[in-house]
Structures are given as C-alpha cells and as structure tokens.
Amino acid sequence: MPVRGRLVVDVAETRDLTLPDAGRSPGELLPFGRRLRIVLVLGFLSALGPLTIDMYLPSLPAITTDLHAGAAAVQLTLTGTLVGLAVGQLLIGPLADAVGRRVPLLAGIAVHVLASVCCVFAPGLALLGTLRVVQGLGAAAAAVIAMAIVRDLFDGTAAARLFSRLMLVVGVAPILAPTIGGLVLNWASWRGVFVVLAAAGVAIMTAAAVVLPETLPRERRRNGGLRGTVRDYGSLFSDRVYVGLILVAGLAMAALIAYVSGSSFVFQDEFHLSEQQFALIFASGAIGLIGATQCNVLLLRRWSAQRILAGSLLAGLGFGLILLLTAATGLGGLFGVLVPLWLVLAMVGLVMPNAPALALSRHGEAAGTAAALLGAVQFGVGALAAPLVGVLGVGAVAMAIVVFGGMLAATAVGFLVVRPHRLPVDDTVPALAVAH
C-alpha cells in the first residue's frame, strides 16, 4: 500500500516531491496533466508484451520458408518469448521491490530493444529463438513494473479504474499487433517486424524515462535478499487454493496461446486466407476476449467471482468440445471452427480476470510477489501450448485439441483443487476482478 502523504519522484532532476495528505492515494494528488501522462505511459508499457508476442504472427509461415525450418520449430520462437516473460517476471518482481522501479524498468526495455535489433540480422532459427527469449525477459520488466507502479500510486477504486483501463490496452494491443505485422509485410520481409518492435521499444523507453517517477521510497523497499524472496515464494506455494487458482489462470492462458500460435497456420494455410484477412480474423477473436473481460464488470454486480469462474470454466469446456468436433469433422467449414473458437475465447476472457482476482485477494501482504508468480505461471504454462500445437500438426484439429485440453485441465483443477463453490465470498474480490 502507498505511504500516505509522501511520493518520491526521481526524474531527470532526481528531486523529491512531498505532497500533503488529503485522504487520497498519492497518484490522485498529482496534477491532472501529470497524472494523465503517467497513465498513458503505463498503457504503453502494458502493450509492449502483447506487441512482442503478436506482431510477428502473420510472419510465421514466411519465417518457416525463409529459414528452411519446420512449423513446430518456428513456433518454438513464440514459446521462447513466453518463457522469457515467465522467467523475467519471477526475477524482476523481487528486484523492483528491492532497488526501486525505474532502474529495472529502463534496463529491461533496453534489453528488449537490443534483442529486437539483433533479431533483424538473425541468420538462423536457433539464434532467432534465443533472441526471442531475451525479448521476453525485457518485456517482462515493462509488464511487472507497470503493475507495481499502479499499486504504488493508487489504491481502492482508483486502482481498480486504472487497472480496467490498462486491461483495455492489453486487449487492444493483440488486435492491432497482427494488423501492423501484416502491413509491415507489404513493404518488407519478416525482419521488418523486428525493426518496428525496436523502434517501439525506443519510444516507450524514452517516454518512461521522461515521464515516470520513482514510486517506491527507500524506506518501503524489501531488503530480505535471496532468502527473503525464497521465503515469500514458499509461503505462496503452501497455499493450495492459491496454487490451484494460478494454475487455472495458466491453463486458460494455454488455451489462448494454442489459438495464438496455431491460428496463422490454420487460417492462412488450411483455409487459404491472406495475411490481411488473417489479421481481421485474429482481431475478431480478440474483440470477443476483450468484450468478455469488460462484461465481467457487469456480471460482478449480480454474481460473485467464484460463481462466474465456475460457470465460465464449464461453458468453456463445452465450447471447446464443440470446436474439437467441428474441426475433426469439417462441419461448417471456416465458420464451424470460428464460432466455437470465439465462444471459447469469450469464456477465457471471464476466467482470466476472476481466477487472478481470487488468488491475489488471498495474499495482500505480498501482492507484488504473488502477482509475479501468477504472471510467470500464466506465461510458463502457456508456453507449453505453442510447440504442442506444432507437434500435433499445426492444423485446425491440432489447435482444437490443445484448446480443448487446456480448458479440460483448467476445469479439472478448478473443481477438484480450488472448489470455487466452497470459497468464502470477499467484498474486495469484485474490485480486483475488474482491475485484472
């Protein structure tokens, strides 16, 4: 929680700014113009990870041809990015709690930019995959520290409102990213996508350096070292319900990543759509996902997060089974795959806010570490889905098997381990579910 009455600001002049206590969180006490600039930069930071993952999706078939590699091997470059994001969050979260926000943030984005530049010149798939891991590590800094800065500056309903806005950014970025990637392919090869990512990283790093303050005062930094970090993570792993909830979130992410990694091959190779048509199809799925996350706000006015989680898991499992059947039989052709796929994505859009909200509400005293572990599990479990789709054949059936498998496993963990119908209803959970 923020320290009332004081906000440390470490910008170019490294000055301290003391704000009078007005019964509000420090971020609300900032002048409107400066607060708006901070929120905009936080939005850019939140978009860096989705842009890194999704902008080069239309390029996957071209990379397969240009580097003379198999589809499964090329999909490992996506897995590498997700692994980097997962590991990076585990490392950067505690680091940012120990040394402050700005230095790890700027260093992480710089690593992302450097890796992007190197990707432009990568001569083979092995080096490209390694560089994608490094890109993920850099993007993890932006994801974790953006969340940490929100927690430093805002609390209560102010934090919930800001998290909701950032969720929109995270949702819109995957819609725009493949479209941008498709446009880049009109005038450049797949290497041009990494030029754009490098330029975006430089712009975001510059904006963060100029606009964002140091929001973690020295007296609030955790200095437990490696032993303290291990102790914090150990206490989280001892909570069965928390572990179950983050696994549910991770398995739902696996279903989403199966769609992300397999969709370009399914719709471009199997259904013969152009790169631009694929970008529109991908955007339609993302719109359904975003729409569900925003409908969650309305649903929480009537039902608890526990009930919404249980219902969305069961519905997602049912739609996943329909997707598998239509993909296997060819019933309905393109739309036979698209409609149940959109419905599964919508259910994932309900699982992903509520499972993390229920998990984080159990560990408010270590929210930063809990959020880092949550993000790591989401991206780590999701990373397993990308190569699995390729191993199974990269067609609609392979994608459907992994999507259905992810929802089946999430539902099993949800009802056998978490047992949402037995969890106590907490009034703070709806706000967290809106936030995430």
TrEMBL record:
Protein name: Multidrug resistance transporter, Bcr/CflA family protein
Broad class of where this protein is predominantly found: membrane
Topological category with respect to the lipid bilayer: Multi-pass membrane protein
Listed transmembrane segments: 38-57, 69-93, 105-127, 133-154, 166-187, 193-212, 241-260, 280-300, 312-335, 341-360, 372-390, 396-418
Organism: Actinoplanes ianthinogenes
PROSITE patterns assigned to the protein according to its UniProt record, in alphabetical order: MFS, SUGAR_TRANSPORT_1
Gene3D superfamilies (alphabetical): Multidrug resistance protein D
Stored Pfam families: MFS_1
Domain Major facilitator superfamily (MFS) profile residue range list: 35-423
Source taxon at top rank: Bacteria
Compartment(s) of residence: Cell membrane
UniProt keyword annotations, A-Z: Cell membrane, Membrane, Transmembrane, Transmembrane helix, Transport
Keyword Endoplasmic reticulum: no
Family of this protein: Belongs to the major facilitator superfamily. Bcr/CmlA family.
